Amino acid sequence: MFKKFRSHRRECLAGMPLLLLVSLLATLAVATPASASNAAIAVPFEKHWVGPGHYVGTAGDGGTIEMWVYDVTFVGNIQQFKATLELSLNGQSLTAILDGHFNFSTARVVLNGMVVDGWLTGAQVHEESRYTGDDENTGGPVFAGTVRLMPGSDD
Fold first, then answer.
1. C-alpha 10: how far from chain center
2. Greatest CA separation for the chain
3. What's the confidence (pLDDT) of residue 51?
4. Domain extents in the chain
5. In angstroms, rounded to a whole number, what is the distance separating the alpha carbons of residues 65 and 76?
6. pLDDT computed for residue 38 by the predictor
7. 15 pairs with which residues across the strands?
8. Is the dihedral angle over the CA atoms 41, 42, 45, 51 positive or is it negative?
9. pTM for the structure as a whole
10. Is there a contact between 120 and 98 (Cβ–Cβ < 8 Å)?
């Protein structure tokens, strides 16, 4: 009986590598290949307060960033707000609408939203930044971080 079981087990296992290979190939054939055009674009920036709710700065290599903050509320140690972001980079420009918050304990900002006009319309936007100090000219806060644009998210 044990020999019969071992023989049957050997027969089943013999087909296993082929089954795994076929399954793998089928999965690869169905999966949508990721293209470089759908890869997230990370843009480092630094923005300075220039007036109430208005920030201006540099982005990437020679680009600009501008942000207007509005609908500000406070919940405990968190400032919640909406923002309009304008980003220009390598001859491309976009406008995004974002929801975000600033945590006074960690000095960190997180924003999420979508490109509503221009380059990459419909793409998701994620910004993370941190307060780095006060601007010596305006006395207002300075933030540095990264804007991530996800072009494939508009599909």
1. 49
2. 89
3. 95
4. 1-32, 40-154
5. 29
6. 79
7. none
8. positive
9. 0.74
10. no
